[in-house]
DNA sequence: AATGAATGAGTTTTCATTCAT
DNA sequence: TATGAATGAAAACTCATTCAT
């Protein structure tokens, strides 16, 4: 009140005003809560109430930020895709051999997943352990980008003229499925995962690295909560 | 119950009591409706009401057959798993080389999927094109079985001593992801899919078969409904 | 902040303190917005939010001027009644014949309505074309005043000893209903309306003026908005 | 229960089954509650909750019968309009003089209103005594019908060639406004009201019947509630 | 068994009002 | 004094489940 009307247009610079800050904070509070809740209950079963409850905010506040569960979800997936897709694409464009193409794809992906587990964690139904993977439009766009990169690589004779669609599918399938295994080991070992997947794609099962001992982490549904908190 | 699913368009052969017949019929009506609804809305978002609505039956009737959405879901799962898991396991037990192990796994899987698309079709949210894959407990049990089979194969020196968990994950990832691509081509070509996946796992990308031209079928979300009906 | 919303089109005339001016302006902004909103949604369905939205002001600002929807409404009412009631009363007090009493009542009323359409415009629900007429306490007080004037006229033998309540009702009914017809013709013709109503009250249907051609104006619900803006 | 499965398709006849009966009853419970609530709070301010509360039914039950407040309201107004419009039209078609046309219109209308007060009772805001009249599409259709009947009467030389729109407006205005006065007297006297209005329209104020003594009923807002109950 | 309306707890959403900036 | 985000009470609506027929 004593700070007067405050002409905040100019001197603002990096200050951002407390209001601004709170808004950003609250938005993140909601997004994080939503990530947790989706992971715990699955997207379909999650309710806006569940998200609000996982937040210190009031119910009405949710609607100041998002119109619906769908909209929160959009926001989450956009964050993820925007972060990882350019990285993957750049790496692949630099590849001059099959080895590089394959290895950088897997390495970059697994490292991202290991860093940002929350966003990739496969959703599981607490009740029945049903596993749900949602590939949002942005993620699917990432698949398309991979396919295009494969086509480009084929035209540069980096790859033999294989079906780019099937190869993309195989890479995606392995990436997601192996990611999940990786997230179950402790500590997460993106390098081992990448080496495994890369070796498989370059030489088949007979070229795979010999068994690495890994411990099953004790992670269970119960722990998801604390993870995300 | 012993009179089986019974396509009831045909003359009632062995004449199970009409009562009996209706019971079986209604059960199947509900299960089919549930499959559709789960596919369209996802398991979490689907409601018992949705399932009933997709049925000519009254709401109360649902509860004569199943206690809840969960129970219908269990029933669906069991049908699928009971059908495919033993086949996969048997085939793999007969394998005496890596080649056989890998190829029979993919071939059997893709053939089943091509036959029984409804149950494997990846769920898509009509609204936002979100892709959802649900791995039910039974399906996950199938994954475990695969891992055990891999371990057995390793101990028989069929495989080198790789990480069975990661190999299982890779096989599963490729199987599901490639299945989906396969379901988009018309006619479905399980052999091509199996050949691709098998070659990849045996020799890596450089061993992959050369490009097969395939046509995108016109399949879209819109058709899911009629598919399943 | 002190540079204000300020309708700065015209030179600021008499230079009331800028502060002062803004206050009056904002008050009018709110009142006008409220008139619109009440007209569009009806009083009961209108919300303070609706009013604020129809304003360039912030929600909190509303409460600097009015405590509630009720209070704005009172203010609107008062404006209207303060404008028209004294005029009607004065005219009628000057009447020395039935003819004068009736004709001045209708003429004054229709002229006011034609001038200040916004406040008399019958409310219509855009959605369902429902017509809503609100007679506010002030308006009803105007009715009472009319009845008293009728009683006074009867006691002065201007009128035969009719039921003043029923006569008042008839005058009011015709005044409002014919007003509305008048507002639908373009240009508004308060004289024709007054002549019609006066003739009816003085001689019945057989004394009515012969048909006047009138054009339906293109006015529709859609235009209410722009009218009031 | 002892009546067994009861093949109710045939022997049903006039029986209608208890279920049927309950449905009709509940529908009426809701409609009556809605009439009360609209009368007490005004249409806009009334909520579905208010209607449900005025009913012995559960909240969900409301939605088995009507989708929204709007829909209940539609049902109410349809009931009214369907009841009164044909009667008015028939009477007017039989009229062979101005006198008959006017008198039957008013008489029929006032009698109906006196009989079915609930549906015509002008809505008042408990809080601020605001009067609200809603002319629904059906009611407006009744206005149009009157205008057409007037046009027909003019072409039959029953009426002089007056503006049918204005005459309709005047009749409607007087009918509604006088109705309301009538409802305030006790006992309701539709004949007096009709005589008054008819005399006014046939001969103007100088032809009006001499004052009838009438008592103001003690009706106040507070009593509306019990009235409608 | 089948039916389908009733139930009421739970979810979604809106809104008046407050209050820190 | 203006702003507009936060609040939480209340309204709107949905749904699994029961139960009379």
UniProtKB/TrEMBL annotation, chains A, B, C, D:
Task: Report if keyword Transcription regulation is assigned.
Answer: yes
Which Pfam families does the entry mention?
TetR_N (PF00440)
Instruction: Please list the residue ranges the record marks as binding DNA.
Output: 47-66
Can the keyword Hydrolase be found in this entry's annotation? no
Origin, by domain of life?
Bacteria
Using the record's annotation, list all stretches that form the HTH tetR-type domain. Answer: 24-84
Transmembrane annotation, as ranges: none
Swiss-Prot/TrEMBL keywords: DNA-binding, Transcription, Transcription regulation
Q: What protein is this chain from?
A: TetR/AcrR family transcriptional regulator
